[in-house]
Amino acid sequence: MLGLENRAPTAAELERMKSLVEDGMKLGAIGLSTGLEYVPANYADTEEIIELAKVAARYGGIYVTHLRDEGPGLVKAVEETIRIAREAKIPAQINHHKAAGAAQFGWSRRTLALIDQARATGLDITHDLYPYTAFSTTSEVLFPAWCLAGGPQDFAKRITDPASRAKIEREMLTIFPQQAGRGPASIQFRELDSSPKYNGRTLADYLRDRKQPVTVSAGVRALIELQLAGGFIAIFHSMDEADVVRILRHPWAMIETDGDLVGFGVGHPHPRSYGSFPRVLSRYVREQKVLTLEDAIRKMTSLPAAQIGHSERGMVKEGKIADLVVFDFEKIQDLATYTDPHRYPAGIVHLVVNGMPMILNGALTGEKPGRVLNNARTIKQ
């Protein structure tokens, strides 16, 4: 509606946005989602989101959000989500719950306490995670949001102005350790179209090859030039496993991948695209015993199915839709790594989706029985 403009909508624009949400819900959308860390969604204030979420709530929808901040502003971002759920009277789901940046290690205690407190008041707050200590996203999270307003051309103009560039660099020096606390080696390129030979390699490698110091300051200057060249997608190694385990144990946490749908061998994806579910079963159930097998399966199946209103799925029971995975518990293992991501997991024997086999005896059948799941909740006009 507003493109890349950094402003609030007019009253007429907000009404149009609400109408679009209503249209989507009538067409079967499960709910409203936001990516508040990203331009232009992060230009939206809380009140704007509440108004849109109220529309989704009328149709039995849910509110799903990538938090506004997963670093220093993490606690406030969770509080914002809870406020939206309360004022819009809508279930809310926090996507890929994490505490990013060394200064925030351990903050999952605070965010989980907030979720528990909200649920104790009757709010339906849930969350999900992937079982890795690195996240993946676009380069824009390394830049102050204001400097990206208007798109690439406006960004380029700001960079050519000495005062504006100096301000951008100063703010990036603060943002950098929040997203990649261990320095340039913590940023691993996934899709760097301007220099694809660095896909899978790090910003530290990029700096060394250019005879530049491997420092945050040099990294910031390089990031600006790479953004001018089109930006990139990267893997950021900046999370603590203790937080992952703590979130994983929470009774209302679900397992997800946050992964890309990529062709086998195409690009350099995060290993979560191939390994999230097997990694939970092997590392956190079989090896570390963080979860029981039954609890892990619930977090992957019946819990998320119920949250989106599809109670006909997610359980092995007569009359339910046959979405089934048969695996060898002693052999199930994620094999994808950060340096070698295109590896299928071991130990999966059969896979049945909507009653049709997609994998039999470890081999793909070629069947594609997947289908779009629409809003299955009671419609409230």
Outline the secondary-structure elements.
Elements: H1 11-26, E1 31-35, H2 46-58, E2 62-66, H3 74-88, E3 92-94, H4 108-120, E4 125-129, E5 134-138, H5 152-160, H6 162-179, E6 187-191, H7 203-209, H8 216-228, E7 233-237, H9 241-249, E8 253-255, H10 272-287, H11 293-300, H12 302-307, E9 324-327, E10 348-353, E11 356-360, E12 363-364
Parallel strand pairs: 1-2, 2-3, 3-4, 4-8
Antiparallel strand pairs: 5-7, 6-7, 9-10, 10-11, 11-12
Helix pairs in contact: 1-2, 2-3, 3-4, 6-8
CATH classification, class level of the largest domain: Alpha Beta
H/I helix tally: 12
Number of strands: 12
Shape: globular
Unreliable stretches covering 5 or more consecutive residues: none
Number of domains: 3
Structural class: alpha/beta
Question: How do the strands line up in the largest sheet?
Answer: 1-2-3-4-8
Q: Averaging pLDDT over every residue, what do you get?
A: 96
Strand content: 5-15%
CATH superfamily of the largest domain: Metal-dependent hydrolases
Task: Write down the Rg.
Answer: 22 Å
Q: What is the second-level CATH architecture of the largest domain? A: Alpha-Beta Barrel
The main pleated sheet reads as:
5 strands, parallel
CATH topology of the largest domain: TIM Barrel
Report a brief summary of the structure.
With 381 residues, the chain is an alpha/beta fold.
Outline the structure in words.
The longest helix is centred in the middle third of the chain and has 18 residues, at 162-179. Helix content is 38%, strand content 14%. Strand 10 and strand 11 (356-360) form a beta hairpin. The chain has 381 residues and is of the alpha/beta class. The chain is globular and about 70 Å long. The mean pLDDT is 96. Helix 1 packs parallel to helix 2 (46-58) and helix 6 packs across helix 8. The chain folds into 3 domains: 1-131 and 245-256, TIM Barrel, CATH 3.20.20.140; 136-237, no CATH class; 258-303 and 313-381, no CATH class.
